[in-house]
Amino acid sequence: MKKVFHKIASFCMALLVLLSTVSFTVDSHYCGDILVDSSLFGHVETCGMEVNKQSPLPECNISKKDCCSDEQQSISGQDELQLTFDKITLNQQLFVAAFFHSYNTLFEISEEVTFTLNDYPPPIIVRHIYKLDETYLI
Asked: N or C terminus of the chain: which is more exposed, having fewer CB within 10 Å?
């Protein structure tokens, strides 16, 4: 049970680090107030109601208000992860060494078994008391 919990916790922490460092962009296309398309990895599809910004003739000055709008939301990830250990201070090195040593000795199995009965001799048996207290039913 402990190994399973350890594996689940390790996987969740790795997923947390991955998701906190990834940045992505969400593109959305609205036609009026209605969401037409939303995309995470590519360009959004339009509804086909966009107004041409350039008129074909310079004499034509008809301007229409465009009802469509595109929104782009960027979610940036964390860039402050320390990937190299070149700038570790002396206090940090001492902490890592002490933690490593204490963690390794925590799970060390001691194979030394001491018997304390070797110092004390067994009692001297004068009579077999268990034989004297026996009762037999006939």
From this structure: C
Q: Is residue 98 a part of any domain in this protein?
A: no
For residues 77 and 22, is the Cβ–Cβ distance under 8 A?
yes
97 confidence band (pLDDT: 50, 70, 90): very high
If one counts every other C-beta atom within 10 angstroms of the C-beta of residue 47, the result is: 15
3-24 burial string, b = 16+ CB within 10 Å, else e?
A: eeeeeeeeeeeeeeeeeeeeee
Q: What is the CA radius of gyration of the chain?
A: 39
Task: Spell out the alpha helix ranges (H) of the chain.
Answer: 2-21, 90-106, 129-132
CA dist 95 and 58 (Å) reads 74
- 84 is written with which tokens? 């190299």
Residue 40 domain flag: yes
Domain count, the chain: 1
Is 36 within 8 Å of 71 (Cβ atoms)? no
